[in-house]
Amino acid sequence: MRRFATERAKRLLVGSFRSSPPMFSVPLCSSASAAAAAMDSAASPVALDTINQKVLKCEYAVRGEIVTHAQRLQQELQSKPGSHPFEEILYCNIGNPQSLGQQPITFFREVLALCDHPPLLDKSETHALFSADAIARAWQILDAIPGGATGAYSHSQGIKGLRDTIADGIAARDGFPANPDDIFLTDGASPGVHMMMQLLIRSEKDGILCPIPQYPLYSASIALHGGSLVPYYLNESTGWGLEISELQKQLEDARSKGITVRSLVVINPGNPTGQVLAEENQKEIVEFCKNERLVLLADEVYQENIYVDDKKFNSFKKIARSMGYGDEDLPLVSFQSVSKGYYGECGKRGGYMEVTGFSAEVREQIYKVASVNLCSNISGQILASLVMNPPKVGDESYESFDAEKTGILSSLARRAKALEDAFNGLEEVTCNKAEGAMYLFPRLHLPKKAIEAAKAVKAAPDAFYARRLLDATGIVVVPGSGFGQVPGTWHVRCTILPHEDKIPAIISRLKAFHEAFMEEFRD
Fold first, then answer.
1. Cα-based distances in Å from 100 to 93, 96, 124
2. To the nearest 5 percent, what fractions of the chain are helix, strand and coil?
3. What does each C-alpha distance from 339 to 102, 128, 151, 453 come to in angstroms?
4. Same-domain check for residues 322 and 435
């Protein structure tokens, strides 16, 4: 049954590429977009030169031009098998685990199914098909939902009983209490980020300190809300280290230009860089934000994805509380999502932000913004509560749950190591260890001839490399230029998510392509 469901899902996925346009497209050539703008302006009252210019400034490379081209190739492979030197497109561009074959956690899906169709709970057959603890959890959740209706609107912060569960999970994780009134359930972490940008950015004179490389959600949301991105560079030579001296330098430079820096974004574990912050480094960051009166925006959606024995995840809230700092000392917003970790429920759109250190008056404004969107989806809310309160020792589902979780995380660790070794084995490529998250961000030391060839087609050198890689192998990666990087350096981001059985073939294709590419453009 599971094999049938998986194969059917693959066929549906292929079909979805035919009908779904990308969210944002980053063109390789500006002349094409200029011509399109001219035609658009002549034909319609809504044209590129008349829409909100903040939208034009917004770019999201993860679903940009390379991915659009990959979708075209996918269609060609379907309509004309054998038309390309590969049989399938391997999407290594985005952290979308289930699209690449990862199975959902059984307990989570059992609870969701029962909550969405409560009559199942009254059928005798249900006890043979569903675990006892899933049935009990479904009753518990339905009792917390007014009317037991998962199709109804909820409180704009999320269902109170689910927020209680999440607060208990945070407290168990950190060893410090959490208040359910501080929790805002959201459709994934992204809406929470947008809400905070809406709150903090008043004009282009307001700046947000963001890591470079960074997840493009931040640069895109800052652009959409009219603020200024203040970059701080992670140190690639020290494993993408975050240095306080760099934060101080960029903060002072921004202030000298009249920019009021409002907050610091930290992504831990890192995206696209995969590093996990050490506890002492986190303490330095908390102290920096406290001293400089900055809101700390902690993107912690990969907290379950740790692959090395000498690192562990610590939330910034835990760090701040362990230093003796309370709400009055540090405004802190922590983001979590059901899309990552071992669960990978991207399409369910569940997540939350925990908002601490804000006055009651400001919290009312955050609630007002949340209420404009009514509420996040109920399935996502339920999943967020399950993620923060999974089966425990003694529960009927615990052994199968633990086997699924351990199997997924162990496989991800093996895939990360295999791809890391593969990149480091390529000529003029260096790749830091993936300590966590779902990505590798190898550096390409490209020949001058390749850089000149990229300039000739008005493409960034890493975008040129990524396009050539796609056309030759069907492997989709994201150019590092879409995440930001030290000027004059070039990278690509590659997920570790393809099924483990496919990793050897990916490595083989990658190696053959890279050897041919370097030979073609050798100086």
1. 11, 7, 36
2. 50, 10, 35
3. 12, 30, 21, 38
4. no
Domain at 173, CATH number? 3.40.640.10
Claim to verify: residue 371 and residue 263 sit in the same structural domain:
yes
Residue 270 and residue 267: Cα distance in Å, rounded? 5
Upstream peptide bond of 213 is cis (omega within 30 degrees of 0): yes
Is 0.90 surpassed by the pTM of this model? no
Tell whether 200 and 279 lie within a shared domain: yes
In sequence order, the 6+-apart residues with CB closer than 8 A to the CB of 158 are 183, 184, 185, 352, 375, 376, 381, 384
Mean predicted lDDT score pLDDT of the chain? 88
Q: What is the pLDDT of residue 16?
A: 36
Q: Give me the domain span that covers residue 221.
A: 155-387
Q: Which residue has the higher pLDDT, 178 or 214?
A: 178
Tell me the per-residue pLDDT of 44-63, one tens digit each, with 9 for 90 and over: 787 777 777 777 766 655 55
In angstroms, rounded to a whole number, what is the distance separating the alpha carbons of residues 482 and 215? 9
Residue 312 lies in a domain: yes
Q: Do 189 and 241 fall into the same domain? A: yes
Let me know whether 95 and 121 are in one domain. no
User: 69-85 in b/e burial notation, b at 16+ Cβ within 10 A?
Assistant: bbbebbeebeeeeeebe
pLDDT in tens, 309-353: 999 999 999 999 999 999 999 999 999 999 999 999 988 999 999
Q: Is the dihedral of CA 426, 428, 434, 435 positive or negative?
A: positive
Q: H-helix or E-strand containing 429?
A: strand 429-430
Please give the span between the terminal C-alpha atoms of the chain, in angstroms, as a whole number.
55
Q: Among candidates 366, 334, 365, which has minimal Cα distance to 352?
A: 334
Q: Are residues 252 and 355 in the same domain?
A: yes
Would 410 be classed as within a structural domain?
Answer: no
Residue 157, token pair as written in the block: 């912060």
| Structural domain includes residue 499 | yes
Report whether 145 contacts 378 (CB < 8 A): yes
Confidence grade of residue 150 (pLDDT, cut at 50, 70, 90): confident
Q: Which residues pair with 440 in a beta bridge?
A: 494
462 dihedral zone (left: phi>0; alpha: psi -120 to 50; beta): alpha
Helix locations, 132-243, DSSP H = 132-144, 160-174, 190-200, 216-224
Q: Quick one: 76 and 214 in the same domain?
A: no
